[in-house]
Amino acid sequence: MAVLKGIRGPLTGHSFELNPSGTVLGRNSDADIVLAHDAVSRPHARIYRDSLGQWMIEDLESLNGTSINGAYLRKGKVGARVLWHRDRIKMCGFQFIFESDEAPDPTATVHVTDENVQHSMTSLQLPSSSAEIDLEENPQTKLRAFMGLIDSLANSISVAELIPKVLNSLVTVFPRAQRGFIQLREPESERLNTAATYPPQLD
Fold first, then answer.
1. Residues with Cβ < 8 Å from 97, sequence gap 6 or more?
2. Hey, how many other C-beta atoms are within 10 angstroms of the C-beta on 52?
3. DSSP characters for 109-169?
């Protein structure tokens, strides 16, 4: 189960259970979570669970934007990003904290399996919330933050599932990034193949 808890603004102290198929926040009276303020767009943002089981948030082309831990989302699905346990979400004068009982363990170890080959990544001790990581610190801190995000993704997932999550996590750690990609090298031919891009390329 995942919930939003109001920590600042008119909904302070209120708790809202999130629907995996989608929870819309906005000024409209029929929104799942009504934010009654003129600065809030009618449909402002949406939180949902994607096909990989990740909780995501997207800004629905709102006028005043949606920020996560101080970094504003790009508008629409192209700017959707993963939500981590205890992320702070701000929309105008409303501020929430995201909590999930499936919160990632920052000391977990990721095992990446691809057919008969298995790689293991050693975990790093990091704060339990991405909200506690100062992204304006030096590059070493950003790299440690990124490694912590990767460690928390899963205990055992395939390379095909992991790569897009890695790129999404990189964009989270480096919120000013506008484009990115990950390439994998074929062992025999040494050829580089693009495994994931940001923004995602449409087929």
1. 4, 5, 7, 86, 87, 88, 89, 131
2. 15
3. -EEEEETTEEEEE------S-GGGS-TTS-HHHHHHHHHHHHHTT-SEEEHHHHHHHHHHH
What tokens were used for 53?
A: 């089981």
Residue 40 near residue 28, CB atoms below 8 Å: no
Mind listing the pLDDT tens digit for each residue in 165-202? 778 777 777 766 777 888 887 777 778 888 888 877 65
pLDDT digits over 76-107, tens only?
777 888 898 889 999 999 999 999 987 454 44
**What is the rounded CA–CA span in Å between residue 45 and residue 81?**
12
pTM: predicted TM-score of the whole model, two decimal places: 0.57
